[in-house]
Structures are given as structure tokens and as C-alpha cells.
Amino acid sequence: MHPAFSVILFTVISGAGYGLFILLAAFHLAGIGPAMSHGELLAHGFASLGMITLGLILSTGHLANKKNAWRSFMRFKTSWLSREAVFAVLFYPFAGIYGLGVLLQGSAIGPLPAVAGSIAAVLAVVTLFSTGMIYGCLKTIRQWNTALTPANYIMLGIATGSALFAAIAAAFGNATTMHAGVAMVALVAAAVLKGIYYFWISRVNGPTINTATTFNRATVRLLDTGHTAGTFLTDEFGYDPRKDTIDNIKMGVFLLGFIAPVLVFASILSGAPAGIAWLAAVSSLVGIGMERWLFFAEAKHVVRLYHGAQTCTDSLAEPSRVGPEVAADTRRGDAPRGELGDTPGGSGS
Amino acid sequence: MRLGLVIDMDTCVGCHACAVACKQWNTSGTTGALTDYRPYGEDPSGVWFNRIRHYEVGDYPNNKTVNIPMSCMHCQHADCVNVCPTGASYKRPEDGIVLVDQDKCMGCNYCAWACPYGARELDREDGVMKKCTLCVDRIYDEQLPPEERQPACVITCPAHARFFGDFDDADSEVSRLVRERGGVKQMPELGYKPVNTYLPPRITRPIPTDDVRANKLVSSVKDWVNKMVAR
User: Predicted ipTM?
Assistant: First the structure.
């Protein structure tokens, strides 16, 4: 899949914003961790709402017809994209009531803002789930069509949010071992979940060129796609990064997204100044940005089977071999196209 | 009614006439224009509702070229309609045709992601998704003589490899063809229940190829000349 930059930014930034809000609600409303000052509460709140809003605005960047974006609320009944939009907007009034409560009453808010804040936190989780389900529900992309997809979206949002939460708390001199510990646990859990996902998609299976073309009892090879230049389909689904690029980015995901932040929080727990939590927050956001790019780059749409891929995990640049003759064919690939007798075994002599 | 196409992979010669006829009719049809990008440039591209791809099936000497024209399958379980957030994509209950309301589409590409058959293409100029309409502006047009109330691709096919009809009617030509020729569906395992059905190539006697390049004097001289003369 072609990675749309606006969608990567949206899911990473909004995801971290929702994660931050979930952490804020857990610490403030459920009473985990130390009491927070008025200023710190507002900082957490404004940061999370700001990131969520920025992400949602960016998400319209990939729409070809932005003036109809408001219509995306219309199909709540069947579409996860519609559900995401509805939940994302529904989050605001509840978060707003909670925020107003904090603004007017400080840390000791009344029951109404507290209930509204709890509902907003639940809606944040539901929105993250809906975002994941946008991808997870597609039967056409086997790498996405798994329960791991929404699980990853929720866990990565909470992990990046918890790193940010610890960093903002440190800025107010209120960071405790609780902050670093929660962030560490969330990051490790997200890393394990992502690891399971990468393991799973390396052995995913599904439709092949045989079921796509209906010829199930013979080898099938693409002779010609029928077009001379790229099409919408090849632009959107033909994205084929090199294997070593994918491996390098995957390394970056684990190093920047998980290992470096966990090491930062481990050193905070063993006495380093809490302020370096910012390093962890920035590093995890960059790492998860790479993760999101990889999420698209590694997803292979089944329409590629019609463009020459043999299986739904094949790269179009290097489709898997279907027989010895194809291998021989490829070796001759650079030679000028000869007469009929040049094809392997074709001369009959 | 369940309208759709039957495509005969035995007789299709891969001439792309159906794609051209489709483009000609639909570019001025209800969801036109089918925009072309760089039509006179080096790499002309554009929106097509119908694309034909060519495959080699089987291994030499038991191989065969098969041409597969593909357009919207007007699936019974059309996920493209379910995932559409705006309600622009819809499936007509009366005849099963899947259409896009050009006034409602926001161009998010999500329906194209949900379609396994590559039937939907974004028109980058208009910013909306476009797809095969099964010539809905033609098949119901009472101004046309009855025999012309068929999709443009079906009428134009010189090999008579395309058939249009109602799959719910057991006596229709399409139902009879599917029954008699053992019609098959593409990627049935995904569960989209495509309506369009493909007829597999007929099993015929293989044509011997052993003598095609027998070493005769004339062919030997030709081979030698071909090798010597630089092209």
C-alpha cells in the first residue's frame, strides 16, 4: 500500500493524544499516582486535545474532495471509518465538560466533570479501536485483516501517550517512579504486541494468482498488464519497498520506538533526572511514525495478484518463482527479445 | 433482479475493444468524464472502468494465453459499499448494480481498498471515485432499440465473449451459459459473491508444435539471415 503521509501523521499524533488523555484520566480520576497541580492538569489536557485536533485536521489531507468530508458521519451503521469519525467528534463534548471542570474547580472536580472525563477516556479507547478496525476489517489486505491490528493501534497510542505523560509531569517536577514504571510497562507491552504482529504477517496466507484468475490447477504467469503507464491501481497498491529498506525501518521501529524509550525510563528509575523523559517521548513518536510507514509499506492488496504477484505476500518487483522455466526466463531477461525459437524449449529441435 | 456479465475466457482474444467502447460511452455518461492524464505525454494514463490483462496458464507445451477482462463484479456482498463512510457508494436493491453518487463522494479511497478486483479508480481531476455502472444509462434507455439496451462492452465485443443478463432468471442466456459451461468466480474465498462470472476455456485437442520449426532448407537460410542482419 502506498503510505499516505497525512494518514501516518494523523494516526501517530492523534493516537498519542488519545493515549495521553487515557493516562490523564487514569491518574487523575482513578487516583493512580501523585496529586497533580492545576497547571499540570491543564498542560496534560491541552496537550492531548491539541494533538488529537491537529491529527484530525491532518487526516483530511488525503481526501481528494475535502468539501464532502462532513459526509463521513453518515454511514455509522456499516463503516468503521464513519464510526471513527463519529467517536472522535463525540469525544470532544465529554472531554470539554471534564476540561471545564478542571479549569474552574482545579484538581478536586465535581462528580459531573469526573463522569464526563471517564466517558471521554472510554471514547478515546473506542476511537483508537475504530481506527485500527478501519484497516483490520479489510479482507483484501491479509496483513491487516487480524485482531492484532486494532490491538496494536490501542497499545501504541497508550505507549506513546504514557511517555508524553511522564515527560509533561517531569516538566512540572511531579514525575514519580509510578510515571516511569507505567510508561515502561506500556512500551514493553506495545513492543511485544508489535513483535507478535510482525511474526504473524511473515507467514500470512490467502488468495493466490490461481484463485484470482480462476485457474486453480495450473501455474499462472502474468504476460501483460494491458497498460503502458502506471494506473490508479499500481500507484495505490503497487508500492514495493526493498527488503533491506523494510528491515532497516523495522530496526528503527524497535530501537527508537521501544528500546530507547524503555532504557530512558529504566535510567530514570535508577536515579537519572526525570526531565530526560522528553527524549523517550520524542524517540517513541519518531519510532511509531516509522512503524506506521511500515504498516502501510508491508501491506499487500490482493489486486496485486492481477498485476503479477503469485501470492498475497509477493513483491511485484520480484515475484516468487513458479517453476524452473520461469527462472530460465528471468535469466534471459536482459537479452533482446528473440524469435519464437528463443523461448526456453520452444524450438522443438 | 441480479444483473451482471458473463465473460468467456475461451473466446476472448484480448483486443481491448470492450475497454475502449466502455471509455467512449462512459466518458460522456452519468459518471463521466473518465479523465485522462497526460493523454499526449510520454506516459499517458487515466481512469478506466474496464481493464484487460493477459496471462499464460500452464507450462510449455501445455500452456495457453488467457485474456481476462475485468470490471466491477457488482458483488452480492459488496464490501466497497459497506466501508464507504459517506453513503456515496450504494448497491441498487432492484437490480444489484453498484454505483457511486458523485455528489457525495469525498475521495478517501477506502472503497478501492476494500475491492479485491481493482474495479474502482479515483479520478484525480474530479476528486471522486469512479467505477463501472453496467451502463445503467444505456440498459434502461427506452429511446434505444431493444437489442442495443446492453452495456457498451457487450455490444462491441467482436469475439462475442461478453454476455449481459439477469442471473436471478434461470432461463436467461447468462444463467444458461454459466450452467452449461461451468462458470467460475474470481477469488470466491473472500466471500464477496461477485455476480460477474467467467467461462473457463474449453478443453480442446492440443495442436502439435513439433514440426513448426523443422529444419528445412528455407527456414535454415532464414535463420541464418536473421542472425547475420543487424536490426
Answer: 0.91
